[in-house]
Write a structure and sequence with these properties.
With 228 residues, this protein is mainly alpha-helical. The protein is built from eleven helices and no strands. α8 packs antiparallel against α9 and α8 runs parallel beside α11.
Amino acid sequence: MLENQFNIISKFRGELMGIAILGVCLLHAFAWTGMGDSILCKVISPFARIAFTEGFLFLSGFGLYYSFSKNDDSRAFYKKRFNRVLLPYMMMGLPFFLYGMIGGEVSFAKFLLKITALYFWLFGNDGMWYISMSVALYAIFPFVYKFIFDNKQEKSIILRTLFLVVACIALCWALYMCAPTYYAKLEIGIAKTPMFFIGMLVGHYSQNNKTFSWKHMLWGGVLLCLTF
């Protein structure tokens, strides 16, 4: 048995989020300055995909597990997420979306879709895909939590997480095969969803001070291989 290594994620979660934010800013800076095809950007991008983009969803699932395991009141959970994520987004976006609507660039219907973060699901990424993905994942989180962790047996928890990862990959593949154009619009968000569920699993290990053996490491490798 190896000692529990997951507590370090909880201890430095804020720092990890900060690194992820800086990484995203760096990659966007490359794009804005026309350096997206530079050698430096190509070297950084593979690491950025794991550490920054998927890393956000991983840390989100990790943190939500901690929060919900302490208070599993779904109503309180939804209220807290609305106040912390969707409400600030709506307040910050309102002036810009209104300006676009007044200027005739944004219709009223599109205004409603953008202000509620639903635009991504119909028309693809407008720069706010992460907000749209977060809102969707928050909406299903209490149900996913109960599905994974209602059965306290460790093997069941791992297998149910694996099932969700495989189901996500299968749904993405089915959408790609049946509606490739629509899939291309959503790929930036939905293809990364498995990392959210893996974050929940690691959160469980961290909070409960679980140790892990080579079998757990093998399961973790399977999950990550399926994700990438």
